[in-house]
Amino acid sequence: MAVEMTRETTRLNGGLAQDESSGLLSVDIRKSFLHASKGFALDLACEIAAGIAILFGPSGAGKTTLLDCIAGLTTPDRGRVRIGDKVWFDAERGTDVAVQHRNLGYVFQDLALFPHLSVGKNLAYGLTRLGKSERGDRIGDALESFRILHLRDRKPQQISGGERQRVALARALVTDPYVLLLDEPLAGLDAPTKSAIIDDLRTWNRTHRIPILYVTHSHDEVFALGERVLVLENGRLTAQGTPHEVMTAPRRETVAQLVGFENIFDAEVISSHADRGTMTCRIGNSKLELETPLVQAEAHARLRVAIGAGEILLATTHPVGLSARNVIPGRVVSLKQRDLIVTAVVDCGVSVEVKLTPAARDELGLHPGQEVWLIVKTHSCHLMAG
Amino acid sequence: MDWQAFWLTLRLAALVAALLLLLGLPLAYWISFSRWRWKFLVEAVIALPIVLPPTVLGFYVLLALGSRSPLGRWWQSLTGHTLAFTFEALVIGSIIYSLPFAVQPFATSFAHVDPKLMAASATLGASRLRTFFRVVLPLSVPGLVTGLALSFAHTMGEFGVVLMVGGNIPGVTRTVSIDIYDQVQAINYSAANQTALVLLVISFAVLCLVYGVNRRIWTPWPSK
């Protein structure tokens, strides 16, 4: 499949120089937990090159367990964990390097800053092997990189949440780890603070090319951060690729539901236009036909199409002179307002959900029974295996 | 007031508290973090002195230290005199008697240290020993002070065990509580009262320290 191939290539090259393959994090593990109520098994294999890789998935998918297995805080039942040519864990060979000898950075969800130590001493904690002057330099550099030099003598309780997150990042990175594991480190921060910290992390990562595995269940963070995304669902990797590939062209419905597409339809491929990079698909049993991006699929193949309710435009007269390829007539069935978002359900042969603002509704004078046109861009139609 | 008995008691209590710190820390650490299935047996043994009559405990300690026991014989071959009815015997008996009063507060405070902090310490390259001294111990200061103070106060006030294993030898094993008992036996109530009052004041002061610390007056980090 064309899409599949692009994805593989991206993953393997990752836009990296040759010498960086030495720091490749390679994980192939299985870990099961037996609980009285339900069992859970983490079972996956992946390779993570230098740069920020997002580990995305719903809570309970096993994201933290995976990080713990890489860190050595949890022992996998089977498999291997390697970084470059160093083996951290190999069940067959009986290798299991102790956490404290792995030299990794781990920022926990609740940060785990030492409350009895100042910011400077929190950073110094992992640097005992260095001489005093070098230690001082390293701490100074790290504090500066994350803009917290002025907090050096404060205790974690005396600084703000965003500052604490910066301290936790600096503490993990000052030891020059082989791998950085971040477990939702920016949860609970406002967007500007978040993006400022992300910028600093990116800047740091440009000079320290190590694999960074960043756990999140926030859709926005995936696009803001990632060079690559791994989607973890119920202990398994279900998709991986660039954020755009994974998040905008999901291959599995579960991923689509995860990302929150309101409209998911069965579709049949009518014709493919390889020269234009598009296909025509018929939706459900209706006469509705949509132009969608091209994926490798036989004529009459069964697929699914997902369209976000916020990606659809609504017009009260037939629009002309648009670049959008799908202009679909329909009739408003219902309008519901929840908070400041109006959800319109429009019957176009199938029911389509559209999101709009209360102002747009009022200005257009929308009411149930009204004739409308829906406008959907080709690339807003996300195709999945059926 | 019998100052000799008073200093002897202080010396005993301080020594026992110090030894319990050395002995109690590893024991409490093990109790807090071991996943051994039969751990509860050890916990029960350590807690025994809380429920046993001191005379029962003293009786067995006396047997264990006597010249017929292996420990007593070994001590005799080493020092040339018997172990029972000496200051050393008093120290051993008191350590056992006060063990739960040190170990339990230690273990409780260790168990309250956030496991994530220990995990963070490990990821930063620290061994378990270093994690213990740099993270667990500093965050357990209230528990340490409590354990030390309680074992000190408990040793100061003990009677039954002392009488059983130490007897009543002035300057060697005659502690304040035994002195009070003697004064009362001799119908010397004013002397008994004087000594008892001193013991009461010291015990009260120590408990004030314990509860004061647990109110986080001297914890090493500022309150929120």
Describe the protein's architecture and organization.
Chain A has 386 residues and is of the alpha+beta class. Chain A has two domains: 183 residues, P-loop containing nucleotide triphosphate hydrolases (Rossmann fold, 3-Layer(aba) Sandwich), CATH 3.40.50.300; 125 residues, RNA polymerase II/Efflux pump adaptor protein, barrel-sandwich hybrid domain (OB fold (Dihydrolipoamide Acetyltransferase, E2P), Beta Barrel), CATH 2.40.50.100. Chain A is built from ten helices and 21 strands. In chain A, the strands form four sheets. In chain A, strands 7-8-9-3-10-11 form a six-stranded mixed beta sheet, sandwiched between helices. In chain A, strands 2-1-4-5-6 form a five-stranded antiparallel beta sheet, covered by helices on one side. The longest helix of chain A is centred in the middle third of the chain and has 17 residues. Chain A starts with a helix and ends with a strand. Chain B is an all-alpha fold. Chain B has one domain: MetI-like fold, CATH 1.10.3720.10. Helix content of chain B is 75%, strand content 0%. Chain B is built from eleven helices and no strands. The radius of gyration of chain B is 20 Å and the shape is globular. Chain B starts with a helix and ends in a 10-residue tail after the last helix. The C terminus of chain B is likely disordered. At the A-B interface, loops of A face helix 6 and helix 7 of B.
- Overall helicity of chain B: over 70%
Largest sheet of chain A: 6 strands, mixed
Radius of gyration of chain A: 25 Å
Q: What is the CATH level 1 assignment of the largest domain in chain A?
A: Alpha Beta
Structural class of chain B: mainly alpha
Question: Could you tell me how far the N terminus lies from the C terminus of chain A, measured between alpha carbons in angstroms?
Answer: 15 Å
Report the CATH topology name of chain B.
MetI-like fold
Quickly give the CATH architecture of the largest domain in chain A.
Answer: 3-Layer(aba) Sandwich
Strand content of chain B: under 5%
Structural class label of chain A:
alpha+beta
| CATH homologous superfamily descriptor of chain B | MetI-like
CATH topology of the largest domain in chain A: Rossmann fold
Number of domains of chain B: 1
Beta-strand percent range of chain A: 25-35%
